[in-house]
Amino acid sequence: MAIKADIFGLVGKRLGLGLVTLFVVSLVIFAAVEALPGNFAQEILGQGATPEAVAAIEKELGLDQPAVTRYFSWLGNAVQGDFGTSFGNKRPVAEQLEGRFANTLFLALVAAAIAVPLSLTIGILAALYRNTLFDRVANVSTLTSISSPEFFVAYVLVLFLSVQTGWFPTLSNVYDNMNFFDRIYATMLPALTLTLVVTAHMMRMTRAAIINLLASPYIEMARLKGLSPARIIVVHALPNALAPIINVIALNLAYLITGVVVVEVVFVYPGVGQLFVDSVRLRDIPVVQACCLIFAAAYILLNLTADILSILSNPRLRHPK
Amino acid sequence: MMFLMWVAIVIAGCIAAAWIFREALRKTMPEIIAKPMRQAPLTAAFGILVILIYVVLAIGADIFAPYGEAQVFEKSLLLPGDDPRFLLGTDQIGRDITSRLIYGARNTVGIAFVTTVLAFVIGASLGFLAATVGGWLEQLLSRIVDVLMSIPSLIFALLLMTIASAWASRLGVSLTIFMVLIIAVLDSTRVYRLARAVGLNIVVMDYIEAAKLRGEGLGYLIFKEILPNATAPLLAEFGLRFCFVFLTIAALSFLGLGIQPPLADWGSMVSELAQFISFATFAPIAASLPLMAAGAIALLTVAVNFVVDWMLHRSSGLKE
């Protein structure tokens, strides 16, 4: 009973910490915009800003309020899904984000659905056959793909899978009301790029986690009992390696969030990342803020999930002595 | 099939070059270099060879490049082989691509190197300071670092670059300088964590206590007592951080928000030359141009990673 309470306490603490982090991050994102030279209103009006027009816009956007008031109303609105109006096309930011967010999520999920099983399998195999040729090749090729920038992987895939063979489209033309398989087909190249970038890291960590465990006495015992290597790894080592592996998976999904920005630009995939980069170029502050908040929140949530899952999956915490 | 054959030839070439390089080092170099090379795996030898080539290219860019990096010629968008004067052709505004690739070694690698050094200066001094002074200063710095690290660094860099670009156009300072500062600060958080952790283990040593009793100042403690004892872990980290900074800068430049023209830089070259990729059927060399720039980035990071991997392996005494 006491241990149950312990787990709840730990999980509750992490959740609280996550909330605090999210709050502070929103503060940072808001504060960053305060660091802009000049002011918002002048930025919108450009060259032909008369003092009256500036004052009118400031009033309209609530810029005549003190920063603290503005922060809380911005945060309050953002929590309810209202991110203000874009400077560029004067449309509500939320409206632009809606479809794109779903697209980005879809891309990340497809990438994860390929990458996670693939990297776990290769990682376990590499641990099982360590120091063989298979392990060496896996090691060198994963190190190479970790080191490559996303756009390198992306263009290599475009050159061979799209331009030369014509198997996949060069640009991901994703639109509303597309049927599921067409959508997967259009998303394949960006998803494969992300998979290649992420798999390497996950595979190496899985391998390291399992090899670490293989040195422990209870594995030695299992080996002395004459169990097969596959059984030792899957039944004995894997449950204890679960916590680090879950951690690695979540960290890499969080990494996908950063990778998605570059990959979306390469394939002109209509997701949040592309909108983000375009808005940074146009200095469209409300959109930049909203995208930043979404990415940061997703990142924090994934890390939080990793923490909580690794607490929950720890056999020592679940089965107290 | 042709492709697989080329891959095999390239890999065989790399292995051969690495082997010859390692043998040459073993035979000709003084014992201090030859000895570690005897145990070095081929990957590490390959890494060292590649890094050396990059350094030579970066330093001697003026000698190796046929033209200046921003020199514009009248013929733009020449394909490779169209004109013997321009080996790899020219880009949209008529600059020689060969020269720009070579100058890219200086600009891209140089800027990434400066940024990493800056990140280490900031991160290590603050980390050691936090470890030595402790108390509220350590708490404050660590919490700031926690917040900075809770936003993915590319995302945070993009947010800050938005603000920086507004300031850059107002102050008339190049955006590249802002980028170096922003990335250095964001990356120094990782260095801070390591430096603080290493520093905390060192400050409890007797010789630090002795130095404190002698009445040495904070600067002496940090730079004369802690730093020399923390160089080994910091050096290994330097290689990894360099790769990370290098890739971040390349990504930003690729997005058009990093190193600014007229500086030749591999990241922005990739996005400028990307259109060539659709020429693959009739001009295969032109199609591989964006891949050359991107591959130059990838090759260096791979090389550094190989060397770091080997160094970590050696220092940890892992003999698996």
Can you offer a commentary on this structure?
The complex is a heterodimer of chains A (321) and B (320). Chain A is built from 13 helices and no strands. Chain A is mainly α and 321 residues long. In chain A, helix 1 crosses helix 4 and helix 6 packs across helix 8. Chain A is globular, with a radius of gyration of 24 Å. By secondary structure, chain B is an all-alpha fold. Helices cover 76% and strands 0% of the residues of chain B. In chain B, helix 1 crosses helix 2 and helix 5 packs parallel to helix 8. Chain B is globular, with a radius of gyration of 23 Å. The two termini of chain B are 37 Å apart. At the A-B interface, helix 1, helix 6, helix 7, helix 10 and helix 11 of A face helix 7, helix 10, helix 11 and helix 13 of B.
Notable traits:
A: mainly alpha, globular, B: 320 residues, 76% helix
Our Rg estimate of chain A from Cα atoms comes to: 24 Å
Helix fraction of chain A? over 70%
Number of helices of chain A: 13
| Parts with pLDDT < 50 across at least 5 consecutive residues of chain B | none
SS strand fraction of chain A = under 5%
| Element order of chain A: H for helix, E for strand | HHHHHHHHHHHHH
Contiguous helical run count of chain B: 13
- Helical content class of chain B: over 70%
Shape of chain B: globular
Ranges of chain A where pLDDT stays below 50 over 5 or more residues in a row are: none
Tell me the major beta sheet of chain A.
none
Tell me the overall shape of chain A: globular
Radius of gyration of chain B: 23 Å
What is the H-and-E element order of chain B? HHHHHHHHHHHHH
Secondary-structure map:
The complex is a heterodimer of chains A (321) and B (320).
Chain A: H1 2-34, H2 40-45, H3 51-61, H4 67-79, H5 93-128, H6 133-147, H7 150-164, H8 180-214, H9 217-224, H10 229-267, H11 272-282, H12 285-312, H13 315-318
Chain B: H1 2-28, H2 31-39, H3 42-59, H4 61-64, H5 97-133, H6 135-149, H7 153-171, H8 175-203, H9 206-213, H10 218-254, H11 266-273, H12 284-287, H13 289-316
